[in-house]
Amino acid sequence: MGNVVVAAAVSLDGFVADTEDRVGPLFDWYNNGPVEVYGTDRGRPFHVSEASAEYMKSTWPRIRACVIGRRLFDLTNGWSGVPAVGDHVFVVTHEPPTDWPFPDAPFTFVDGVEEAIAQAKAHAGDGDVTVTGGNIAGQAIAAGLVDEIAYSLVPALLGSGRRFFGDYVGPEVLLDNPRVVEGDRVTHLHYRVSKG
Questions:
Q1: Which structural domain range is residue 84 located in?
Q2: Where does the pLDDT of residue 196 fall: very low under 50, low under 70, confident under 90, or very high at 90 and above?
Q3: What is the pLDDT of residues 139-184, one digit of tens each?
């Protein structure tokens, strides 16, 4: 069985977007380097530093499914039906869209984080499941469903906005020492959640 990994680019003060859902400088590192890297969408290249490329190439191929919230789905229009990474997206929502123009896209709409992660894990088999940062991440941590945290730390302060763990209220969670990869305008911190 693969791992459930909470992942996002995050500011030094803990935000994945500002109050208007803009990412601002948090995504600059995706296009500031000489190495071309692709997720699932072959029409959407990233140009990153050599260190970030090696990190992405060591983690992205293991991803089989993603769990996202309805807010991200709406903001991106579900990436026009093509998952950014992995081959299936599970969207947590109480109200699935009725007029989305990509009915055959590999997207499943699920009522609840726990059920979405369960379905994503079943789909992923021995591959990994990513959970996007924000309220969905906080709910997954609170439910004890997270194995790893991939925190791409950007040297910026947003001051306010959407927090990496949303409105997380739950038990104390300890993490093992991180794998640290220093990219250009980003430091990738990859933690395992301590199980003992």
A1: 4-192
A2: low
A3: 999 999 999 999 999 999 999 999 999 998 888 999 999 999 999 9
Distance CA 56, CA 96 (A): 31
Q: Which runs of E-coded beta strand occur in 12-96?
A: 15-17, 35-38, 45-48, 63-69, 88-92
Q: What is the CATH number of the domain that holds 56?
A: 3.40.430.10
pLDDT over 90 percentage in the chain: 94
Supply the pTM of this predicted model: 0.95
Q: Which residues contact 82 (CB under 8 A, 6 or more apart)?
A: 40, 41, 43, 44, 105
Number of domains within the chain: 1
Nearest to 2 by CA among 124, 179, 123, 143: 124
